[in-house]
Design brief:
The structure is a homodimer of 257-residue chains. Chain A has 257 residues and is mainly α. Chain A folds into two domains: 51 residues, Orthogonal Bundle (Arc Repressor Mutant, subunit A), CATH 1.10.10; 195 residues, Tetracycline Repressor, domain 2 (Orthogonal Bundle), CATH 1.10.357. Chain A contains twelve helices and no strands. The longest helix of chain A has 31 residues. The first copy, chain A, is globular, with a radius of gyration of 21 Å. Chain A starts with 6 loop residues before the first helix and ends with a helix. At the A-B interface, α1, α5, α7, α8 and α9 of A face α1, α5, α7, α8 and α9 of B. The structure holds a DNA duplex (18 and 18 nucleotides).
DNA sequence: GTCTATATGTGGATAGAC
DNA sequence: GTCTATCCACATATAGAC
């Protein structure tokens, strides 16, 4: 152990730099040469420490997902223990699942917004080995939460729950990816949309907190939406002008001072 | 015009194959050699017809987005004319925006699910030139729909609307990307989740229709969710056990026969 | 418009000295 | 563990004959 010299520094510097560059330019768009130059280590170091570029990517994710998986399971265990057999509320489950993820963005030690963005962008990467790897890392946790949602919504068809879990994952992963066309079109960052006091460049910690604050109500609203078919998905002829839509209007308006 | 020989065939074959391969392996992961080999045209043909690989990608998108942009504007124009100055309903706007997009998946001539998947995957591509190009293509339409939502929800803060538009774009783009970890984890395609009668492999047309049917209620539910802050985003202490959550439960249950 | 041949660069990976 | 030097496959792009 004591004869490892700067070994630990080298490994971690490579991981940190790779995380940053994979996030900014993608896996295929980032060469080992750029990584090692930026990290100021030797080119051969990557293959010595990790074996290959693919293995490097896996390690970049593993060191972050280890915490995320553990914490998500812990949060769900805590909820289920606390409920003592009673079904959980959907909002609690979403908070445990998505809230835990978004906490990464608030803590540099867990990866911060850099890793969140990387995760969001990588979830739609077409590379085969990436998809199978991520699926494997996610499998256990996803299964647990899926079952929890089934129990929480016993009267909703399971297929419908899976669809909506799918949509929620999408809204979240796109949001944390931070590549939205809206941002480029409107020429503003998500941080600018946070509104309120903080002027100038918002730090990532605050951005993550606000993202969570905005995203969670949206996800809950989507999860609890009426099932398709009941109003034919889009009510072209609502029962009365003040029935189908206004329910929402009321929600939104009553919070405007 | 008549002296162009097989020119048209070559150009279109390259575009069709590039669309398919970019979807399956990404921009960086697809070489011009593979494209020209698959399309059974000469390697130099790409540079002759399009100028460069980047220009090829742009053309792949342009030929599909031309229809999408035109149709989205037309749909919004029609809604606004029909309303005669009155504000539109959010559901109408979403139907015009997302429904038009999803129609692509039902029509091979418009690109089909291949292009939809490509679009969803490319929206989170980290490459600089792709993001700026797509933003430019989307700019006009996004701006129009944003304004329409502002008018439709005059009492909702504009920043909040932009956030939710952002989330809706995410849910949709992730859904059409078809790279969800859920699918790999559960080992099933979205088509399997459609349930109902059709056994075996579902054709893309039916998949697109069902996706639309499931996605639209989710998006509406998210858009119309209570504003953050009103229940502190996650009600840890709801007023009564049968108040905050059950409203949803009722929605979902009353549709279960 | 199409093709062959090639220019020119960069990628990941490794062998072997230190 | 670190470094230099190098192998070799493959990338985009183009020049020039047909």
């Amino acid at each position: 152990m004591s004869d490892q010299k700067t070994n630990h520094d080298t490994r971690d510097r490579i991981l940190d730099v790779a995380e940053q560059l994979f996030m900014a330019h993608g896996y295929e768009g980032t060469s080992l040469r750029v990584i090692t130059n930026t990290a100021e280590v030797n080119l051969a170091a990557v293959n010595y420490h990790f074996g290959s570029k693919e293995a490097l990517l896996r390690e970049v994710f593993r060191r972050r997902l280890a915490w995320l998986n553990r914490e998500r399971l812990r949060a769900l265990d805590a909820l289920e223990s606390g409920a003592g057999g009673a079904p959980l509320k959907p909002s609690q489950i979403l908070e445990a699942f998505f809230g835990t993820l978004l906490r990464i963005g608030e803590d540099e030690a867990l990866g911060g917004m850099t890793f969140l963005r990387l995760l969001g962008r990588t979830l739609t990467d077409p590379a085969e080995f990436i998809r199978t790897f991520l699926a494997g890392e996610y499998a256990e946790v996803i299964e647990r939460y899926k079952q929890a949602l089934f129990s929480a919504l016993p009267d909703v068809p399971k297929a419908e729950i899976v669809w909506r879990l799918h949509f929620m994952l999408g809204a979240m992963s796109y949001a944390i990816a931070g590549t939205d066309v809206l941002q480029v079109v409107t020429g503003c960052e998500l941080s600018d949309l946070a509104g309120e006091e903080t002027a100038g460049a918002i730090d990532d910690t605050a951005l993550a907190r606000r993202l969570s604050q905005r995203l969670m109500p949206f996800l809950l609203g989507g999860l609890r939406a009426p099932l398709p078919g009941c109003l034919d998905s889009v009510p072209h002829v609502p029962p009365s002008e003040g029935d189908a839509e206004p329910q929402t209007q009321r929600h939104l308006q009553e919070k405007q001072p």
